[in-house]
Amino acid sequence: MTHSKQFPSFMGLVLAVLCLSASTMAIDEFAVGPVKAQRGEMQSGFLAVPEKDGTGTSIPVTIIHGARKGKVLALVAGTHGYEYPPLLALYRLKDMIDPKKLSGTLLLVHIANLPSFQRRTIYFNPYDWKNLNRVFPGDPKGTLSQRMAYVLTEEVVKKCDALIDLHCGDGNEALIPYSYWMISDKKAMDRETKDMALAFGLRHIIIDTTRTKDPADSKYLGNTAILRGKPAITTESGFLGRTDEDDIVRNMKGSMSVMRLFKMIEGKPEFVADPVWIDKYEVVNSNFDGLFYPKVEMGSTVAEGQTVGLIKDYLGNLKDDVKAPLGGVVLYIIGTPPANKGEPLFEVGRIKK
Questions:
Q1: Helix, strand or coil for residue 177?
Q2: Which of 125, 149, 124 is nearest to 137 (CA)?
Q3: How far is CA 154 from the centre of its chain?
Q4: 84-96 vs 245-261: helix axis angle to the nearest 10?
Q5: Confidence check: pLDDT of 25 > 50
């Protein structure tokens, strides 16, 4: 009788231990798609974007799963495939970060838009001519860009605690470093994203109230994260498809400063000491096909109504005198001749007083 009473208790203890072990294993493993890393490990691989009509692709990622618990921070580069400094910065971070010294998990999306990277296209995916950063949260049955956005939403946005969407001037854009602080409907999140923007270290910060609030049509990667309760910022550092060392380092330092903000690595974040806040901005698009002749440089201060550039047609005839819609700083301006109707020529931001 004594043994029969003890046996169920012993079996219950064994089952409890097994359940605890299974639970611990689940916590200790972090996975995105087929890529899995145990705590204290680094693993790299590919997220598959399923084929449709014979066209598919993959997304190279690295998981650095820290030895200690903490936040899951996603760093995403290459949403536009001709923007090189951010993605080069992430490959360097992959070699620098020791998972055994890391708290939390770093999820590196090295090249979000591999087709654009491979074909050296600005803005657009060469297979469907869509801008990946305008089709979030994506569609699993849509075009290639929409399917890529869907995979990134499901495997990256939904599995992180915070996200940085790393950009720079595309192959045609002369751009000064700046970031977007996207305002949400939640004050606590706004405080956290403001800290992220300041910690990343880019002096010019756009206070962005223009993003859609519709989770089903979030359009932008960073906005997709925010509308799903994940603090996110979008950064811009680099220009004209170049690989300048200063811009690569700026992306690395900014990412590591945010990691320090989240106490993922040792040290204190380096906050911007004298931020320049942009409280309104406007992107000016071309009304004509032709050639663009800029009259100011990136970072120039312009007055409302000032000529920023000229558009001439393919025979050299003047078609447009393009003026600044508001006074402020030129955040970026097209630095290559082609002007296409409906595509950007420059962006000007008003400095908050």
A1: coil
A2: 149
A3: 15
A4: 60
A5: no
Amino acid at 115: P
Burial class (CB in 10 A: 0-12, 13-18, 19+), 313: middle
Residue 265's CB is within 10 A of a number of other CB atoms, namely 19
Strands 29-32 and 35-38, bridge-based pairing: antiparallel
Domain with residues 280-351, CATH architecture: Beta Barrel (2.40)
Give the whole-angstrom CA distance, residue 146 versus residue 249.
Answer: 31
> CB burial class (10 A; 0-12, 13-18, 19+) of residue 236?
buried
Q: What is the mean pLDDT of residues 314-321?
A: 98
Sketch the domain layout of the chain as residue ranges.
27-261, 280-351
Q: Tens digits of per-residue pLDDT, 32-57?
A: 999 999 999 999 999 999 999 999 99
Handedness of CA 112, 221, 120, 253 (dihedral sign): negative
Exposure string for 157-170, b = 16+ CB within 10 A, e = fewer = bebbbbbbbbbbbb
Q: How confident is the model at residue 240 (pLDDT cuts 50, 70, 90)?
A: very high
pLDDT tens digits, 166-216: 999 999 999 999 999 999 999 999 999 999 999 999 999 999 999 999 999
Sign of the CA dihedral running 37, 42, 44, 49: positive
| Residue 346 and residue 309 in contact, taking contact as beta carbons nearer than 8 Å | yes
Domains 27-261 and 280-351 share a fold: no
* Assigned fold of 27-261: Aminopeptidase (3.40.630)
Retrieve residue 264's tokens: 């993922």
Distance CA 215, CA 229 (A): 11
- pTM > 0.85: yes
Mean pLDDT of 154-160: 98
Beta bridge partners of 46: 60
